[in-house]
Amino acid sequence: MHSSPRGMMQLAGTAWDIWRAERAGQDAIARRQRDRLAVLVEYARSASPFYRRLYRDVPDTVTGTGTDLVTNLRELPPVGKRELMENFDDWVTDPHVTLAGLKEELLGDPSRIGGFYRGKYLVMTTSGSTGEPAVLVQDRNAWLVANLLARIRERRTLVTAAEARAFLRRGLRAAALIAAGDHFAGVVLTENARRRSAHIARRVRVFSVLRPLTELVAELNDFQPTMLYGYPSAMLQLAAEQKAGRLRIHPVLAIASGESLTAKGAADIESALGCRATERYLASEALALTSRCSEGLFHVNADWYIVEPVDGNYQPVPAGQLSATVLVTNLANRVQPLIRYNLGDRVQTVPGPCACGSVFAALRVEGRSGDVVTFAAAGAAGGVVTVLPLALGTVIEETAGVRRFQAIRTGPGSLTVRLELGPEAAAADVRAAVRERLGRFFAAQGADGVDVRFADEPPRPDRSGKFRQVWSA
Questions:
Q1: C-alpha span between 231 and 389 (Å, rounded)
Q2: Nearest of 82, 133, 108 to residue 405 by alpha carbon
Q3: In this predicted structure, what is the pLDDT of residue 61?
Q4: Fewer beta carbons within 10 Å, N or C terminal of the chain?
Q5: What is residue 285's predicted lDDT score, i.e. its pLDDT?
Q6: Contacting residues for 299 by C-beta, under 8 A, at least 6 apart
Q7: Which of 408, 418, 427, 414 is nearest to 473 (CA)?
Q8: Distance between CA atoms of 219 and 42, rounded to whole angstroms?
Q9: What three-state secondary structure class fits 278?
């Protein structure tokens, strides 16, 4: 990760601190949080015009040494994706990084996915699972911390000893089941790893879930992956293909992320693919937010990320109660500070200590989810085409002018789309572009002729307060 003497010292020091924090008590973790928060807030105030304005009425002493972390946090106003993106150039702390520059120099060029922008930043776009895409810039320290947290905290739980032996016998060939072609976190991290080593490049590949299923199955049969990672909805599709005999792979491990994986879904994947299915709860904004333990719970890596489960008024909810959303603070990233950022997921802090013995608080995650939807296959009586929610959503959200959306399957040949547009977007032009992009997508999937209609009403949460992007009515 770092080859210079200074870089190696930083790597060793960070790794040692992460290892020590596992064995520290709650007071030591709180001290790390408080000290790192104080430094981050001070830096954000001095280097980010956005935060300087936002915190103009916040006392300078709010993050002082010896003060209470919970009290301090409540003094800092929460921030959301829309607000930050509207102030992007003032949000980032490096004046050489601008949204226009990123779009011109990087984001429109698929060949640059996974490379460091200006030699020091990884740039990602969110998949917009709340319907609002964002452009995220991670500095080398944030990337280093995330890598070390994943390697150290999940060294015993992500891969079992038996699975490690199987990888040694059969070799590691990892298939990333994600939406390719853009700077999404999973693609960026995969391509970044491939850039670092020709050996890795041969053994790790992105298999785009935007491709027609028949092509995806053929490519996987040829590659014969020993590890799958990515969207669980894609894995469930592949499980059905394996049962039908069209897919013939024998993975050692399947790691789901990006969507919620139900117990039934995990069982179906394991039954069809013959391997263990596990899950990670991460975010593009916080690349190593949690680590999964042997009990199946997600422990917050609280020495580097602060997680606040809150209600609809951003007030804290007690342990055991499902939150309306969760605020996240990334203590590692300076170039684009995220302080009390509304992530949009619904989580529940598990009361009491975890049986695994971890000192870090554990979460149960409801997260965000969408339905796998089916449409009538073109030219095949009774045939159906299955479409993944994130694949369908990506087509819509990547259309210029779309800020948020919802897509509702209303019949085997019909889809209703709700759109919220950016301030400069012309509704007629955006709708025409969405219809054209969806038409090409459905045709590529073998579902030509889907009638796309647009609702006058904007996207909205359901009665439970949960915002879903894609579902079948």
A1: 10
A2: 133
A3: 67
A4: C
A5: 94
A6: 153, 290, 291, 292, 293, 354, 356, 358, 360, 361, 362, 363
A7: 408
A8: 50
A9: strand
Which parts of the chain sit beneath pLDDT 50?
463-466
| Pairing mode of beta strands 384-387, 373-376 | antiparallel
Residue 275 has a pLDDT of 98
Only one residue has tokens 């799958």, namely 228
The CA–CA distances, whole Å, from 411 to 375, 378, 449, 451 equal 8, 14, 12, 9
Q: Could you tell me which of 334, 329, 361, 335 has the C-alpha nearest to residue 348?
A: 361
**Can you tell me whether residue 293 is helix, strand or coil?**
coil
For residue 420, report the phi and psi dihedrals to the nearest 5 degrees: -120, 125
Q: Which residue type occupies 260?
A: S
What is the number of alpha carbons within 13 Å of residue 407 lying toward its C-beta? 30
Which tens digits make up the pLDDT trace of 129-168? 555 678 999 999 999 999 999 999 998 899 999 999 999 9
- Other CB atoms within 10 Å distance of the CB of residue 195: 14
Q: At 29, give phi and psi (nearest 5°).
A: -70, -45
pLDDT confidence of residue 37: 95
Measured CA to CA, the distance from residue 117 to residue 422 in angstroms comes to 26
pLDDT for 100 = 96
| Alpha carbon distance 304, 311 (integer Å) | 23
Yes or no: say if 100 and 116 are a contact pair by the CB < 8 Å rule: no
